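Reviewer comment 2.1 asked that we show a complete input and output for one of the modelled complexes. We chose the zinc ion case, as it is the one discussed in the main text.
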Amino acid sequence: MSYHEPQFRIARACGAIALLSLGACAVNPATGGRMFSLVSEGQEIEMGQQYMAEVDAGMGLYGNSGLQAYVDSVGQALAAVSERPDLPWSFKIVDDPVINAFALPGGPVYLARGIMAYFNSEAEMASVLGHEIGHITARHSVEQISRAQLMQVGLVAGVVLVPELRPFGDALSGGLGILFLKFGRDDESQSDELGFRYMTRLGYDPQGAVDMFEILERQREAAGGSIPEWQSTHPDPGNRVVAAEQRLAESQIEGGIVRRDEYLRHIDGLLFGKDPAQGFFVEGRFVHPVLRLQFRFPEGWASQNAPTSVLAQSPDKDAVMQVTLGQGSTPEEAANAFFDQQGIERLGARSRTVNGLPAVQGTFRVTTEQGTLDGEVLFVKHGDLVFRFMGYTPTSRMGTYAVTFERSLESFAPMNEERWINLAPRRLEIVRVPDEMTAERFFERFPSTVTLETVLQINGWKTGQVIPAGSSAKRVVGEGVPGDE
Ligand SMILES: [Zn+2]
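Response of the prediction step:
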């Protein structure tokens, strides 16, 4: 039998495992229960370290070493009291404005900088770190990843192996989609329980976990239809508040370490929302204030500013455009590196200039199992870098899209507008509240560049809440990326 096919169905039934040479039954280190496992601990660690290198390079780490060290020290202390203290644990902040946290197999845990703005104490942060540690100690992460890998074997085997030309369905999710695995409800409540165990072992006030779930619940309600990432991978925050309150009551633990002021001191100045330095869409175009460039995607296409490329997909999902860095120091070198790849056929190429910039433009064809794709590609030099801008579609659709691609490629140009180059990012500022006042009065006295609703959410305040004199509170300063709320 082909080895990747039936394992999904029997993955949870340990008795049937004798049929398989790849899998093994083991005792779960955190829960003591029997589990099906495809990988040894050594493989689990190796897998996690590999993904960690990809995340560090692909998503980028938040560049505040003091804050990184703080998060790592809290995480290491929690991991040391877990059932697997000897794993190569690491705790890092990725430079991503979403409210998210995730765990890789065998040790690496990440917080997105977006979620850092919503914690109001070290205890709250510890509750989320403890939860993610739980996904690793209970081996949820490695199980999910090995299942996802099997699925990839099944889906991708034999399909085009040119890395630049992924199947259309994946175009907007990017290569890092595997990191945002959805865990089942059982895994989530188990991790909540393990997180509670670790934080209370260190003497943290477990009320922090309840507060955190409440914040996430309110955030979800405020977001309306669009559910931020952490909630979509970590479902039902409402039920989790109830469960966390129950756990708290049963434990009979009262109070503990909170460290509110210490936490807030660490996040003073934290970037909030999108960072203009990573480029953004405005007035129908993409502008990058650091690289000083701009371009337009076709009107009405869905677009995404991913860490290593900027992507757009046609409304019919049958064409993709992508801007990324090319290889080499000249447009010619980058073009040759591209066309020399196995599986890519060069249909034509010529030197030209685009808005005063030296460039090579060409057309290519790629053969896949689902038929051939045709594309138009531009290699353009700007500053010290060569950019690759391309569009591709099934060969039968090229007649429809050729002009559309061409028009977009020709929009690549230098960008020197002061208003975008000097745009200040939004940052948190920690304020000492001078007198007792309501949350609304605080918003008047210490204005923010975000709505009152957002200020209430990041501070964990309710409408009309009275803020005691002398306490620390968050406001948001700086103009930020247009349209980012
Ligand atoms: Zn989780």
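The mean pLDDT is 82. We note this here for comparison with the apo prediction described in Section 3.2.
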